[in-house]
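Convert to structure. Protein one:
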Amino acid sequence: MDFSFRRRPLGTLYLKYTLMFGLIALAMFGGYVVTGHTLIWNTDALNQHLPLMAKYREIVLNWLHHPFSSHQAWSWQMGIGTDTFQVYSYYTIGDVFAYLALLFPAAKITLAYQVIIVLRMYCVGLAFIYFAQHFDFSDRVILAGTAVYMVNSYLLYAAVAQPMFTTTFMLFPLLVIQVERVLKGGSAWPLTGAFLWMLVANYYLAFVVGVGTIIYLVLRVATHYRRALDYGKTLLKLVFATVTSILLAAVLLVPELLAVQNSTRAGAEFANGLKTYPLYYYLFLPKQLINGGDTTFMFWSALGLAAIVFLAIVYVYTRPRQYPLLAISLALSLVMLLIPACGAFFNGMMSASNRWTLLIYLPLAMTVCVLLQNVPTLDQRILRIMILATGGYLLVLLATYFFQNDDDLFVPVIFLLVSLMIISRAIGHPGPGSERWLLGVILANVCFNALYAALPYNGGFANDMLTRGQYQAITSQRYGGLNQGLAQKSFYRVNTISNNDIIDSLKMYNDLTSGLNAVKSYYSLQNKYVGAFSRSLGNVQYQSNIPLNQLDDRTVLNNFLGVKYLFVQSNGDNATKIPAGYTLDKTTTPIINYDQGQPSNAKTAADLTTIQTSRYTTKNAFPLLYWQDTAISQATYRKLSATQKERALASGVVAGNQVAIKGLKKANLAGEVKKLTATLISNRLTPVKASQLVQTDPDETYRLTFPDLTKKAVAKATKGSELHVDVSSIKFTPFSMKEELAYEAAHDQYMLTNPGSTYNAKFARYQNWRKLVLKGAPDKSFTITLTSSKGEETITQPKQSILSFFKLITDGSLNLGYFGGQLPQSVGVTFSKLGTYRLKYTVEAEKLGKQYDQQVKTIQSHALKDLTFKTNQVSGTITTNRTGILTSSIPYSSGWTATVNGKAVKLLRANQAFVGLRLPAGHHRVVLHYHVPGLTLGAKVSLVGLGWTLMAALATLVFKRRRAK
């Protein structure tokens, strides 16, 4: 099995492929169409891919019309403000398919997005055909391999959920071809081009594919070229291709790498702390191979190929010396699938996400090609091995079926047995008949897998797709229409209430369509300083890619970030958990749902509960930039609780070291936060020590009581406060499997209260063991829920299997809501998991009365006046009577520079995460300007690279001409 660069006629093959793709596309996407769905996923596509493509289309068109005008490098509408380059460079700039949106009018952007998805998949197949035609395969064999390569669980998901991932399925075959060309003594220029495309497409995926290409190179040399290779020349060509492509791509790579280093992704726990995967992963991994309709990935170990792949793998291992590269590649892949560290390495040293499996579909598809090409030459020995291997595999599947009933496997097993039967009948009967039959079975298999995944009746992907016209409805009714007509005379931001869904059942993380400056944002890279700020204040809603979320409904935090309007859905969670100072401004027309959520004793329409979207507004929003002459030292700040840190935002500024705050008055933090004593009491009516809470009964609940609030003086002093439970330390130790089973059994027997009840210990033990294994127990995840009259508040340690959303929880501040009257004397507490909890916490009342209102008025009176926004610039004037610090809620970045009265000044980080600068007494004109960090350096490197490339190209041309003479 060897590469051949001989030209062969491909027109007929491409025509056949196009016809085959039409059939596959009908199965892959037709299910969405006939059930009234689109190809727009309700999470990343809704929040990122589609709206960013639309925005980027506008940017490119504006550049085409005004190529010499300045272009937006900073957006105020992406969260609380962000570098647009770091967003677009991940999602759109290097994606060649995104530019096809320019061919569609703005009104047809959703159509453009979906057409491009289909086109991407067509190109995936083209890439494999181009790859496979370098081998001595017949057209039918190539088409069979193409079908296997295109239709798998990974691509069925990625095509609609993460469309840019499909590019890697085009890139990897092309990279392998060009590496092979170099190994055979050919030109390095095609490899340079492939490397360049890889680097500009997406830096994260470039790392994955780049490492995969290196692995291929090493294995290919070791198994085929180690004795015949001219190592010197080959190494020079590889270095040339690598260096040249990196130089040319530097304009993107340099700022991208700086963005990654300064993002919340930096410093993530390696492999989410996993040394091995949970037991269920190893139990169910075998069935992943052929379960093409599977929509639940385990750590991104998708697989899900045509059933014949199993037989192809068996065949390759009957001929390991004939196919050493395939045999070693697949064995290495299996080992890597078993070790979380491998997934974490390919995932940038973060979570154990096996997205790298995109690399193994190429060798798997090639095994199918090899099998089909050799079916007529198989003998009875190989057939017996296939039959025995299939029998063993079916026994494994049967065992997993009894452990977890998975009806999805029945049809793949049928296809596996049919494929084996056709192969057995083809032995000793040379001719094209077996190829035709097997191609037909493979097409039927992959079409079934695609259709099964797309239809909504099976819990497939269609249930996660927007319905036809829904995207337009969402964009026009993002806040129930209450965003329309809001004046933009001054800068402000908007927000929603925690876990309160205005758009029903959808995760609305971003707002890129209303034109408002929404706090919440969801992008792969987020400002690390904002993330640290959020965690420092104990924001339990923090995620690395959603660092602020909805600010946990905290009053001071919303005010500090300039949130003037809050939107609330009356039938959503926490609808009454409104921060202090926000008053009802406007509502949509009330709707009465007579069939849901109504009181049983209603007599008139006035007694019924109505549903509406409400808009709340406040006069306490902080300005975007304002002057402060009171400061908090770092030493003092570090001693504050999370609640005290939040409350201190209105009292003074934390800025750098002592030099930065020299000459400023010391902030007075007295009386702003009052600590309350608390007692934790079980529903067994016994007090519990939070420092050693052992949860042995899954139904045991608790009350957190506040004895101080029974005293009239304390109750009166804390009126008009926000109630926080600041957890400064939390450690959870799960029980062992044996211990947990014992406690579950004890609970089951405890619940047998009626006469004549018996307990089937063996069956119950099996059920509980099965339940715990499927949940991944024992594991470190847990949820602590506190319930007040305002709603629920949780602090959650996510499972390690949640991958990018995993975070290690050691503390957090739970906001139970603002109470205009007296605080509640107790709140409910529940723990989700059995185990030992060690908690250190304080209960604090954050007073939001006259003192706070006066501080806000002072801040507002010191706002930067005549605020003017231009592209990548904000400016204004201010007069100060003494030295102070210009504070802001603009996320800090090294890309910001400032001038005061025309002179450059040094910026500092104010309040951990925001742009600030010292101002002396006097009248000042302040101008802040933003540029993309590293872009200028990257552009210079790329210019050098362009010069180098032109010289190398000229030298190559001259050398070829001399050689031709």
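Protein two, convert as well:
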Amino acid sequence: MQGRRSSTFTRLLRHGFTDPAGAERLLEGDALAEARTDPVLLEALGATADPDLALLGLVRLVEALAPEERRVLLDTVTTAKPLRDRLLGVLGASEALGDHLARHPADWHALVTYEAADLHPGVAEFERGLAAATDPDALRAAYRRCLLGIAARDVCGTSDLVRTAAELADLATATLRAALAIASAETPQDAAAARLAVIGMGKCGGHELNYVSDVDVIFVAEPAEGVAETEALQAATRLAVRMMRICSDTTAEGTIWPVDPNLRPEGKNGPLVRTLSSHLAYYARWAKTWEFQALLKARPVAGDPALGAEYTAAIRPLVWQAAERDHFVTDVQQMRRRVVDNIPAAQVDRELKLGPGGLRDVEFAVQLLQLVHGRTDASLRSPTTLTALAQLAEGGYVGRADAASLDSAYRFLRLMEHRIQLYRMRRTHLVPDDEAGLRRLGRGLGYRSEPVASLNREWKRHAVEVRRLHEKLFYRPLLESVAQLGTDDTRLSTDAARQRLQALGYDDPAAAMRHLEALASGVSRASSIQRTLLPVLLSWFADSADPDAGLLGFRKVSDALGKTPWYLRLLRDEGATAQRLARVLSSGRLAPDLLMRAPEAVAMLGSAEGLAPRDGTALEQEVLAAVGRAEGPEQAIAAVRGVRRRELFRTAAADLIDTYGDDVAREADRVPPADLVDRVGRAVFDLTSATVAGALRAAVNAVTGDDTRPMPTRFAVIGMGRFGGRELGYGSDADVLFVHEPCDGADQEEAGRAALAVANELRRLLQIPTADPPLLVDADLRPEGKSGPLVRTLASYAAYYRRWSLVWESQALLRATPVAGDTGLGERFTELVGPLRYPAGGLEDEAVREIRRLKARMESERMPRGADPTLHAKLGRGGLSDVEWTVQLLQLQHAGRLPELRTTGTREALAAAAAAGLVDAADAEVLDEAWVLATRVRNAVMLVRGRPGDTFPGDGRELAAVARYLGFPPGHVGDMLDDYRRRTRRARAVVERIFYQG
């Protein structure tokens, strides 16, 4: 006995059983006594997805049968291979269908018939199979009986994926008809009052349904003759509700599937049933692009066939006109962005439908191409994904090889989805995360040796292929149409290419086609690499606010660097570099303009280290060394401004890349907006300081004849305003004071003349017109303003401040920071102004009132005429000026006794004031948030327009680019402006309380 048991145990292991001891007990039981020794039974069980599950299901089925029926079943199983394979295949793949057979054991006969109609049933055959069901439970049981046949053909390979999905859709159609018939029989008066048509949508409408899926429908009704419309719609609504409940209620017989009517006009908020004219009125006026995308799959499935046909005939033209509607491009950009945020992080990698490289990628790509090209080519209008994909390939809208790869991947992923849902008949798109589930799934797909490893390998391969082809599907045919390579006679036509580029956001498709031709035509190695790069680059450009500018910039950079050996290799081999370049080129004018003047700066984009801001000391050393090598002041300043251009590009590129992110960066690594503002401010401060230091050295050299004459005075530059606060933006001027101190024994007048000559030369050099962006040096915050001397001695500053200083000058000196020149002199200047900006006793009441008067006057007089005060980032309500004056007032009042307030930075001073209890923490947060937002707006305007500005742009495309920089998706410019007004309104309320009333 032990030897026989051991032999059986070994055989069970060899046949794929994971619980051979349990399987042995089942085989030794009474249920299978007549068949346990038959060798074909074990072989057949071992060929199933889950031999243990198949054996248990068989035993439960046999035990549920009467003795005579048992013998018939077992005899048929051991002698008839078709039934054996079908029955055991289903039992090994589906626990749920095994449960059904245990409850309805006679249904095993449904798997015996093997007629031609049984091999390929349609709606008529399924309607006959459901005809006897006159109540909901009977319908559920009959539905599962029909499902047995579909599952059997599927797992045995008699039906392929497309056929199985079509049969499931046909069964759903027959089931909806049967459910509507039951509902009509229950309430014949409602059925008589209205003509009701049920329109299949989604995968049901597309004839490609899953085993378990919401069945999407739309209801349309018309009154029966002599019935008022309101009464008819109420009756039709009651019928529709009852029909849905028959399908979706759960009883002892389980459930069929949920019926989802939420694709109807207005979704959940709209009436369940509408007349045809009401549908058409909504679609003509209110419908969005995604609704027309959904209507691609609409087809009548139940109810009044004439009304259903009227509905589809009426809406079909609207679908194919969708690409001509306003906002189509914006809608497409929104739809193209993958919506995976709602998927729990732990499930993203297991999502077959919505995850990266999932089913939705394929379905969306195909549907979008249908919307774009189907309006002029009626051959592209199939509601079935794989049929439409084949039509797109046949028409040259998709490359044949790409279509074949996508077809193969889609079939594999859908087959995985079917096997996962079949197991327990549950609606899920998650790949199992347990070993047993993965093993069953792998064996169900035909992997008998190492099923888990083989499944994971093939799944990942197909997902990567889908992700790779998803974007190229749109763009590769564009390149093939301009490259004119190969002999494919289905090349995309010029009109089709123009339609596609317009749909993807390109305003000037003719120019875009010229750029593509220049980049991708020919047989050179560079052209070949460009054809590899451009599909994904074009998709990144299309995701931006200005795709045309991105493509034009890329052509210019490629023209400049095309012959260098490293450029295309860098883009091809370092994927993040290409994406970063696309972000930079399509984000506005500043960064591309900087890059065009020195295209070799593309190399910075190759790594995160290349984009890190340079240390201020290292920058100054580089600049001073360049000045030392120059042969004259003009050559020196050209070198200095070249360094400034390079570093400004580095800063802007890093800002843009960290703002928009790339495929390499993880969401958790994104830099918060406030940190980006601080980083830009510090980086621009460092490079501006280095620029001023270089200009100062060049100016001193010019004045002293390259040190042939000694400089009779020490000279320092003091940063003021946002420069001194280390809060510079891309378009900020450099506010400065010039101070000098004659050397011991030097003639005072000669020292003064030399200092003035240096200051004037410094300003002249920095304003020489060149291709590089100028740096305006503004010395108007000096004593007596424009009327006072440009340069003063330290002693002169001391005398002036002691006798004449006004409260606004003390406020301005809060930002004073030495930035260039003699270090000791700079320190002595800050010591001199310390008591002025940090008065020991704080401010007197009159001084406070004077500051408030100055602020009120500035608000009324300096606001540009016609500017919207709610949207002016500097002088507007809750803008930079409001926040900075509030913080500076607190510093003037309290920094004398609170050293922690003695900082030149606005955010640091505000944080210190909150920590000291001078400002409520919530108020400080509101002010900080508004200041950061206003600073980002100014930075965004400079990045987008290439010139500074304090208000939002008037041009629509520029405004959209600013919105993208601030984190708003396409089409949400209004939301951006509302958000800005809301945040700054809250900040102004705090300013009113602290600055004006405190």
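Residues 485-489, 663-667 have pLDDT under 50 and may be disordered. Strands lie at 194-200, 215-223, 259-260, 273-274, 299-303, 713-719, 734-742, 777-778, 791-793, 817-821.
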